[in-house]
Amino acid sequence: MSFLAKKKCEGVLGATGSVGQRFILLLADHPFLVLHKIGASSRSAGKKYKDAVKWKQSVPMSDELGELVIQACKATEFSDCDLVFSGLDSDVAGDIGIFTSNLLLSFSIMQLCEMYVFVIDQYTEIEFAKAEIPIFSNAKNYRKHPLVPLVVPTVNPSHLEIIPHQRRDLGMKKGFIVCNSNCAVIGIVIPLAALQAKFGPVEEIEVFTEQAISGAGYPGVPSLDIVDNVIPFISGEEDKLENEAQKILGSIDGTAFQEQDGLRIGATCTRVGVTDGHMAFVSLRFKNRPSPSPEQVTEALREYQSEVHKLGAYSAPKQAIRVFNEPDRPQPRLDRNISNGYTVSVGRIRSGNGGHFDIRYACLSHNTVIGAAGSSILNAEIAAIKGYL
Amino acid sequence: MSFLAKKKCEGVLGATGSVGQRFILLLADHPFLVLHKIGASSRSAGKKYKDAVKWKQSVPMSDELGELVIQACKATEFSDCDLVFSGLDSDVAGDIGIFTSNLLLSFSIMQLCEMYVFVIDQYTEIEFAKAEIPIFSNAKNYRKHPLVPLVVPTVNPSHLEIIPHQRRDLGMKKGFIVCNSNCAVIGIVIPLAALQAKFGPVEEIEVFTEQAISGAGYPGVPSLDIVDNVIPFISGEEDKLENEAQKILGSIDGTAFQEQDGLRIGATCTRVGVTDGHMAFVSLRFKNRPSPSPEQVTEALREYQSEVHKLGAYSAPKQAIRVFNEPDRPQPRLDRNISNGYTVSVGRIRSGNGGHFDIRYACLSHNTVIGAAGSSILNAEIAAIKGYL
Amino acid sequence: MSFLAKKKCEGVLGATGSVGQRFILLLADHPFLVLHKIGASSRSAGKKYKDAVKWKQSVPMSDELGELVIQACKATEFSDCDLVFSGLDSDVAGDIGIFTSNLLLSFSIMQLCEMYVFVIDQYTEIEFAKAEIPIFSNAKNYRKHPLVPLVVPTVNPSHLEIIPHQRRDLGMKKGFIVCNSNCAVIGIVIPLAALQAKFGPVEEIEVFTEQAISGAGYPGVPSLDIVDNVIPFISGEEDKLENEAQKILGSIDGTAFQEQDGLRIGATCTRVGVTDGHMAFVSLRFKNRPSPSPEQVTEALREYQSEVHKLGAYSAPKQAIRVFNEPDRPQPRLDRNISNGYTVSVGRIRSGNGGHFDIRYACLSHNTVIGAAGSSILNAEIAAIKGYL
Amino acid sequence: MSFLAKKKCEGVLGATGSVGQRFILLLADHPFLVLHKIGASSRSAGKKYKDAVKWKQSVPMSDELGELVIQACKATEFSDCDLVFSGLDSDVAGDIGIFTSNLLLSFSIMQLCEMYVFVIDQYTEIEFAKAEIPIFSNAKNYRKHPLVPLVVPTVNPSHLEIIPHQRRDLGMKKGFIVCNSNCAVIGIVIPLAALQAKFGPVEEIEVFTEQAISGAGYPGVPSLDIVDNVIPFISGEEDKLENEAQKILGSIDGTAFQEQDGLRIGATCTRVGVTDGHMAFVSLRFKNRPSPSPEQVTEALREYQSEVHKLGAYSAPKQAIRVFNEPDRPQPRLDRNISNGYTVSVGRIRSGNGGHFDIRYACLSHNTVIGAAGSSILNAEIAAIKGYL
């Protein structure tokens, strides 16, 4: 394909954070996306990457990467990039408002500096777009914007069709902004899309999560809070779980998104001592009666093929969903790396036994791959195939 | 009170197991229950306790205890005991039927020996009763028996009223058998009892658990399964959660129990790397409309006083339920030892936001204290106060 | 004893930190030391304790404690206290000098504020003494001061004899300052004292530690650094291990200390995912030939009685040292709470097999009890018995 | 090279164990070693691999592998293999003798069956050799045999020169047996070889280890022993550490090995909650005076090139040793996978400060790659290059 012939230079914003580190890892051997520039807070700008980052990946950083010099996250610094990935994570920053001053004081200076940078940068992500640099964002700021597609690549790549309208509206020719969803939402919405495609709308979901510590960044969760313990709360997370899926699972109607109507989600989010991989336990009720059996659900998940497979995107996993029959799977340590973290695993599919819910199952997603950086990369590949890049 | 004046000699069956160890810890300083004999599998009989047990408690075993000689678990060996506590745990044994031969092979010989002993002993628990030795059981075998009370001490001590009928039916004068519920059920049913007492029947519950490794005994969960991991399945556990509460929350009507009608429970049970303390996350729907607000639920839980408090039982906690306002509590490591593990903690009380469920909350219970041994001890204290002992 | 008859009002400085929290726990039921005032950084001053502290103990804080109002750590605020315990921990603060600016930025604002307070407060600890308030310090600032006793209560209580000279020198009548050693040093020095008392001087020690995360305070060690990991380095710790024991094990000669000559210590310190309890693995060489056998070493440790036992100090453990014969003990989770954390456990005593070292063993100490707050409390009890308080 | 042109069919014995699983993972993409047959205990023989194994690797098993049928571990079943790798681990089996009956009972039936198989199989490994099937063993049984090379591939590949003599002695034409060392020994001996090559003999070593749970197999270490805990003892391990290095570091003199004389090793082995990666902390004394400086040691480790690099073995890491300057590295989670686990990492190189030891450092090795299966594979590659295969 022609887009493969042409290498694209890309930049990574927020390159020292945990999502930024994952971007860099995933792009290391990419056939046509070539890491060209890295950006971080102005505090780190001018330093070599190896001197500014606390690298916490189990794959060592390459020597070349370590020598890269960090730029400030300004559009002018990235004007020679064909596109930019942003790991600037407003999921942390956005929560500032609800912190008591006491809690705020427990943030590290680094976190606070980044927050400040975020408060600026997350709203300047759009500045990259306006400067005609396409940007793929992991922050939450534009997720609900009526002209910004919120794309989970194995679910709703068609939402990229809004890009021409977005460009028109904001006066851009080449630039645009595409958003990722929250890491926990992404894992949940993929099986949901498969089930709705086959059995019609889901009416109500009760979801419970066990989320990995890498989701909180570094230094993130103190060890005294997680050794011999779980934390039954993640600030702001339940709200995202209850409200982002409706846009992703909704439709695009010419120039506007239509959120899925009548989909109610109730969420409980907890933190457990797992490095990577969010577990989600889902109970759901379909609208149509009779509802499908566990066997039918299993088959539908197993057979699910999303548009991204047909498009032939390089990073697309063979299976968007891997279904387990073993009663005790999926498990984070064993299954998070299936298809390098691009596949979501589902298991424990069982009947609701005549209660309010029709079906229960467990699913696992790699929170920094398909739940963050990997989704952005796949979105970029799709955008390239569709001619937006 | 007169029963306080009279010391009772008690025996502990299954004394080398994790529930048995907890019995011994809790009884160490008891004012009128005096440890007299300990029983374990025939393999351990005749050995000193210190030579037969793998003591895994964070409180050291006393020298006196270490020197106690283990008896076989036969009624004849315990005929000089006023009562017997049984930590024989058929929760493990009972699952044998569903194991594949491959899984079975992964059990230790010790576990299998115990299982065999269990298969015998759990059905011989009733032999202790018939031999006129009152027995307080943690096994599941008699929980559903129509003449055996299934008692959570801070919920339904009135169910002990069945004892005279049980004695009549089985031809006993002093003997009887009283059962505990499953460790996870106990933690859930206490707040539920408080809410139903105030707001009328609950119609449906969706419950999700994060259970401690001590619940699986020793050696129990292999470390390779729990470091950097969670296990999304506990064999047989969900079934107990879905089916035991109805009897506990039901009524006693003269000579028979009446299970609570129309209470549907859907359960998902997971294992996490916590030593002690089961977390349960509950979403529930009341029958009566309008349903209570989170504030009303909070107040009802806070004010809950069960019969056991009025009776003045020695081990009864001041509060059956401790309510937290902090958004990130209760947590296992910080809160499992409130009132020495006899209190259940509840937090994160919040509205169902107009969905199927009215209320959501998190609760924490110490799985080997109020979830097992402590419940039996409180049950014995109540039985003594009520004159059955 | 007369000192028992008279209650002493005491204050705790650094009350919100992890050593401060442990002070408060240990003093909760103390027969004659009554918690009167609590101090913390000026940022917390004026707040209720429950609103300023992140309580991380497995025993809940009492309601009374929660309502106590925090004072600034100034001598004027504590003038009505008979003595003051200081949990101000310069072990953290003191390391500032070696941090790169990058590392420094990873400290939380709370930590940095405390550091700043420390930088002030640790050097103002002496101000309390000068204001005639006896102070027991956990900080490192005065440990090497020629007029300040560095006392491990089960080792060298006689070093308190310097107090009159200290008072004379600094112009105080009632005030004085007594220091604790570093938490890891304390655990090592107790068995060492027992062995030297019996077999004469030790010439060389190679020590390796596995230290608990509570030793780094809160938030302290990030969970991403300790889940499925160990950290082979603790900043500044090895230096303390190599240099503090010589003063503790030295003698007091009229008005001056004489450090133990010719005792060389080589140390390697690591951090592991244990909440409380430092393990130390010691290989040592005695000066005298022939060296004692493992059996002789075992007996000497078992029989060790320090002066504190003869003095009848309230918190003194029955045994300063508990010796294990089991090959796999002591272990942190099982043994750290022996005698409420005031006893040090030793096991794995074995021969050096003809190499440079004569003997190897493992020891375990509760790092915030005997390793910090508990030592200060025992030191205060001794000071009271000896008439300095 | 010619040996690359010719594919070799290989078999893996003990294929269901943790070393066996690692063999299979490492051989999955091997250019000329093709997995042909897998063997396990007679209990598993005849089953599909996926039905017999508890796969605990973070990389999923392939579908093809899952369908492979397990053979009994008899030479006749593997007669069509060009070579055989054995993951039969007598490190476990060999310890039977020292277990008390009580401890023995805590082993799973699976473990005991395997032990029984081991007791047979480990002594039948030689039967494979006699049946003319070259065998690379991880068991300890033949490590000390005077005609069996104990080879760490980046240290002493020249020891394979004994093969002709071994063949002569045992009457074999093509068959032979080559042994791996213990997983902890391998990690220690590689830096040691580099240092001795440059600075002459080491006289004494004090080594302390923090070993991963995967080293104990599955189910292995119970989680109740490792959560919030460390275990200060690994049965039989210290003995291997103190006695295997001398043969590896010794010379081959025509037809016999000469162990390194005068190398004394003192070892302390502990188990920590890390999945993979053994840490070893080494203090050592050179024979020659003056001893090298830390800088010289660093340089010698960094420049070390072993014979295996010159031979061009396929799996040989670019660097046998990776040296870290960062004070807190290497760490298991971050560094165990360098060069896919074939490289040993060294850090914290520092002076002995005038004590008995000249130098201290920390090293990390992946216990199931370079510490077990990977070493065997490299040994096989070397044997092929040298014409023994």
In terms of quaternary structure, the protein is homotetramer
Widest sheet: strand ordering of chain A: 3-2-1-4-5-6
Q: Assign an overall shape of chain A.
A: globular
Q: Bin the helical content of chain A.
A: 25-40%
Order of helices and strands of chain A: HEHEHHEEHHHEHEHEHHEEEEHHEHEEH
Distance between the termini of chain A: 14 Å
CATH architecture of the largest domain in chain A: 3-Layer(aba) Sandwich
CATH topology of the largest domain in chain A: Rossmann fold
CATH superfamily of the largest domain in chain A: NAD(P)-binding Rossmann-like Domain
Radius of gyration of chain A: 20 Å
Number-wise, the strands of chain A total 14
Helix count of chain A? 15
Strand content of chain A: 15-25%
Chains forming the largest contact: A-B, 44 and 44 residues
Number of domains of chain A: 2
Mean pLDDT of chain A: 88
How would you characterize the largest beta sheet of chain A?
6 strands, parallel
User: Low-confidence parts of chain A lasting 5 or more residues at pLDDT below 50?
Assistant: 1-5, 91-121
CATH class of the largest domain in chain A: Alpha Beta
The secondary-structure class of chain A comes to alpha/beta
Protein architecture, described:
Four copies of one chain form a homotetramer. With 389 residues, chain A is an alpha/beta fold. Chain A has two domains: 2-182 and 372-385, Rossmann fold (3-Layer(aba) Sandwich), CATH 3.40.50; 183-366, Dihydrodipicolinate Reductase, domain 2 (2-Layer Sandwich), CATH 3.30.360.10. Chain A contains 15 helices and 14 strands. Chain A has helices at 2-5, 18-27, 49-52, 63-67, 90-93, 101-104, 109-130, 163-170, 183-199, 237-243, 245-248, 294-303, 307-311, 332-335, 369-385, and strands at 8-13, 33-40, 70-72, 83-86, 135-137, 177-179, 202-211, 251-253, 256-258, 264-271, 278-286, 321-323, 344-351, 359-365. In chain A, α2 (18-27) crosses α15. Residues 1-5 and 91-121 of chain A have low confidence and may be disordered. Chains in contact: A-B, A-C, A-D, B-C, B-D, C-D. At the A-C interface, α7 of A face α7 of C. Chains A, B, C, D: Keywords: Oxidoreductase. Chains A, B, C, D: It comes from Paecilomyces lecythidis. Chains A, B, C, D: Pfam families: Semialdhyde_dh, Semialdhyde_dhC.
